[in-house]
């Protein structure tokens, strides 16, 4: 999956069809979503919404990446989830009526689609196919969350950082002649937030792995050079 240049404004219908969940809706419903949805451009670091806020739309990333952030008791931001091209964010809050429990922030320049909640909820109300796909997707998401918590329960910083790289690679990576390239532009700060460690520890671990030929940084992207050795760190 190659990121689309930010200057290339995507087609609304194509963006909607890039989402696996929305592929289940009828052509009529797709046409209605195309009519009422709006493409918005955001810059890296821009907040799309704050936690606790009320917005009348859910997001669908067309290009670029969004992170969902929670502020802990120490006042530090903790990254909970990442969403890339073709992924909806804010959907469960819309369906359950819980609003925005997390802050949504762009971690790269991006185009994203603002899909009105009212339109999504109307389709959800009459589309059995959408509900079926959503149940299956939610089950997979819950499984992934449990797996993430299990992997991050280790007391070893190296294992937690390795877990983060593999989890991101599951959804946002492509393999080339260089290795497994993470298409999500993760910074050391974001890795440390997700791994529950410090920036200093993250830099120390990543620098050592680079020297050992396990990972590399190429064109501002992290590349896993030696998947077997990184996996050995994870399961050690």
Please give a quick description of this structure.
With 236 residues, this protein is of the alpha+beta class. The protein has helices at residues 12-17, 27-36, 91-96, 117-126, 128-152, 157-171, 188-195, 199-211, 227-235; strands spanning 38-42, 47-49, 57-63, 66-71, 77-83, 88-89, 103-106, 110-116, 173-175, 180-182, 215-218, 221-224.
Structural description of this entry:
The protein is α+β, with helices and mostly antiparallel strands and 236 residues long. It has 2 domains: 12-150, Sandwich (Jelly Rolls); 156-235, Arc Repressor Mutant, subunit A (Orthogonal Bundle), CATH 1.10.10. The chain is built from 9 helices and 12 strands. It has helices at residues 12-17, 27-36, 91-96, 117-126, 128-152, 157-171, 188-195, 199-211, 227-235, and strands at residues 38-42, 47-49, 57-63, 66-71, 77-83, 88-89, 103-106, 110-116, 173-175, 180-182, 215-218, 221-224. It has a 4-stranded antiparallel beta sheet. A 4-stranded antiparallel beta sheet has the order 2-7-4-5. Helix 6 (157-171) crosses helix 9 (227-235) and helix 7 packs across helix 8 (199-211). The longest helix has 25 residues, at 128-152. It is globular, with a radius of gyration of 18 Å. The relative contact order is 0.14. The model is unreliable at 1-6 (pLDDT under 50).
Question: SSE layout and pairings?
Answer:
Elements: H1 12-17, H2 27-36, E1 38-42, E2 47-49, E3 57-63, E4 66-71, E5 77-83, E6 88-89, H3 91-96, E7 103-106, E8 110-116, H4 117-126, H5 128-152, H6 157-171, E9 173-175, E10 180-182, H7 188-195, H8 199-211, E11 215-218, E12 221-224, H9 227-235
Antiparallel strand pairs: 1-8, 2-7, 3-6, 3-8, 4-5, 4-7, 9-10, 10-12, 11-12
Helix pairs in contact: 6-7, 6-9, 7-8
